[in-house]
Design goal:
two-stranded antiparallel sheet; globular; 258 residues; 8-stranded mixed sheet; Rossmann fold; 43% helix; alpha/beta; single chain
Length: 258
């Protein structure tokens, strides 16, 4: 926790808004997406899903909640309690909606379904996007799949199993416009997943990483991603890290307050 506090103060000192950005591409992203005017209707589907999920108090066996496992204190917990631990804030949900609406990705990959909260955000932002979401906990995903059927999210494909098996499957001969890496990027596994994803990206693909400053290991992984030869532009918003591969851009790193 101390490290995260120090990192946040460093972030505040170094961060800029749109007035400190000279890249036309990044400037437009900030002004047209990050700082887009809020709408009351942006979060309607997201908030309704959260409400429905929070009322589900049935017990479930949680054996391996992939990236979210660090939140779990026992194998059996009320689903509503785990939901509260893993939910995305309204502010970040709105930013993710604006991002998808701005980028208009046709093919999206989410690594770590969890309780489908972020999946709902991705789905509601652009209904014609094809979304593939991966998770290692089949029991939890089965519950989420039923909820998605009820809410008519028909353009979402769920895939369960060990990531070491499912990731090569989704990266094989598939190209993604947007890849969302859930949880903390705090070990070499995340770095390996990132490197594997490079076979499935194109010039305008965007990668999103969560909690890039949660601890020293997270920052180490994030710095390695920034330095990768295929990466041109990265944006650090403290909680999220954005990665771009635009060859027409000079390699540059931005620290942006949102």
């Amino acid at each position: 926790m101390f490290h995260k506090i120090v990192s946040f103060f460093c972030f505040i000192i170094k961060s800029k808004n749109e007035h400190g950005v000279h890249s036309p591409f990044v400037f437009d992203l900030i002004t047209s997406c990050f700082y887009k005017t809020k709408s009351k209707n942006d979060l309607t589907i997201f908030l309704n899903y959260k409400k429905e999920l929070s009322k589900n108090n049935s017990l479930s066996e949680i054996s391996n909640f992939n990236f979210m496992s660090n939140f779990l204190l026992s194998h059996k917990r009320k689903r509503s309690r785990i939901f509260k631990d893993s939910e995305i804030s309204n502010k970040r949900a709105r930013l993710l909606i604006h991002l998808i609406q701005y980028l208009k990705p046709k093919n999206i990959l989410e690594i770590g379904t969890g309780f489908g909260i972020n999946t709902v955000v991705l789905s509601s932002a652009q209904r014609n996007s094809k979304i593939t979401t991966l998770d290692e906990n089949e029991q939890t995903v089965n519950v989420i799949k039923e909820m998605f059927k009820k809410n008519t999210f028909k353009h979402v494909k769920f895939l369960t199993g060990n990531f070491d098996i499912t990731l090569p499957q989704v990266f094989n001969n598939n190209i993604y416009d947007f890849i969302y890496f859930k949880g903390s990027c705090e070990n070499k596994t995340t770095l390996n997943y990132f490197e594997s994803s490079l076979s499935s990206i194109h010039n305008n693909s965007v990668l999103l990483f969560e909690n890039i400053h949660s601890n020293r290991e997270s920052e180490k992984v994030w710095n390695s991603i920034k330095k990768h030869e295929k990466v041109t532009v990265t944006i650090d918003t403290f909680l999220w890290g954005f990665v771009f591969f635009r060859k027409e851009q000079e390699k540059e790193h931005f620290i942006i307050r949102i």
